[in-house]
Amino acid sequence: MLYYKPSILNVCRCCFTAKFLSRRGLSTTQNLSRTNLPHQKILTHFPHAQKNAAFLSQFIYCPTACGGTRGLFGGSRDNVHQQTLEDIAENIRERKFKRVVVMAGAGISTPSGIPDFRSPGSGLYDNLQQYNLPYAEAIFEINYFRHNPNPFFALAKELYPGNYQPNLTHYFIRLLHDKGQLLRMYTQNIDGLERMAGIPPNMLVEAHGTFATATCTVCRRDYKGEELRKDVMEGKIPKCSTCKGVIKPDIVFFGEELPQPFFSYLRDFPIADLLIVMGTSLEVEPFASLAGAVRGSVSRLLINRDLVGPFSWASRHTDVAELGDVVSGVKKLVELLGWKQELETLMKAGGDEASINMEE
């Protein structure tokens, strides 16, 4: 396991500003130690994450260290070139970036027709009244699922893989893989569109789980996701053939541990030479903290509707933000890379009926 010792890192821990702390729900008088992370309350639900919390804390970038002129490993930022999207594209095209890590959220799947969770009015959480839930998040709480699995499976019928098609963004990540430059993709999505686009499972870390596999909640027998599909599509609760217990897709519910592959970040992020963050609010921990887990000298590209996470409060000269529609941002990057024809060919080969014309 690759692990950086605290003594190696030149991180100023005493000058986190009130703005930084307020975004993490802390006051300026609270101690931000390695065991008192801003997301400590959330981490209590994830023992593995809590165990490794000290690692993530080593990579938190201090926006005001020495007047904001020092990066994670120190060094002046005076007279330093502010990186651009053109710079990122050039370095990808010339293969100076060979270990690209991608972090993605629901925003990369909304162009495929899948609603995200938190958008006012159109998000899933604002449209769950039909399930008679005590509160919206209950649909993904393990204790509520054990009491009443019906709402989850009603929602699963809508979200189940195969109901939607990958879009240009998924295929761009697939192209990065085909060119041997994708180190890993970390996704918050459970829709399976990354797999459908041809990104191999070993290149994926599905941080919030997947419909691709399932487990009996009683005897723990393993199932393939496709074995549940018929029951789910017919509005039935899938039952175990061995013990008749409820079979639950391997989606991570509130109150459950993160999947073990999530902790691949321990080896991936320290060796990444480019981080691309797309379509995420970076509000859900511990996933959100990964954006700060790359080395301070590493380029970070945000393709997103809004500035989020460290891009909004701890920007580096190596950060680039392409704001607006995610697909439009990816198209712009693809044009700069000169990969337009390759991407269109890949999408056609994938049989993507919902493919997005590059000329739009």
From TrEMBL:
Pfam families: SIR2. GO terms for molecular function: histone deacetylase activity, NAD-dependent; metal ion binding; NAD+ binding. InterPro entries: DHS-like_NAD/FAD-binding_dom, NAD-dep_sirtuin_deacylases, Sirtuin, Sirtuin_cat_small_dom_sf, Ssirtuin_cat_dom. Residues 78-340 form the Deacetylase sirtuin-type domain. The active site is at 208 (proton acceptor). Zn(2+) binds at residues 216, 219, 240, 243. CDD domains: SIRT1 (cd01408). Keywords: Metal-binding, NAD, Transferase, Zinc. The keyword Metal-binding applies. One of its GO terms (cellular component) is nucleus. The keyword Lipid metabolism does not apply. PANTHER family: NAD-DEPENDENT PROTEIN DEACETYLASE SIRTUIN-3, MITOCHONDRIAL (PTHR11085:SF5), NAD-DEPENDENT PROTEIN DEACYLASE SIRTUIN-5, MITOCHONDRIAL-RELATED (PTHR11085). This is Deacetylase sirtuin-type domain-containing protein. The lineage of its organism: Eukaryota, Metazoa, Chordata, Craniata, Vertebrata.
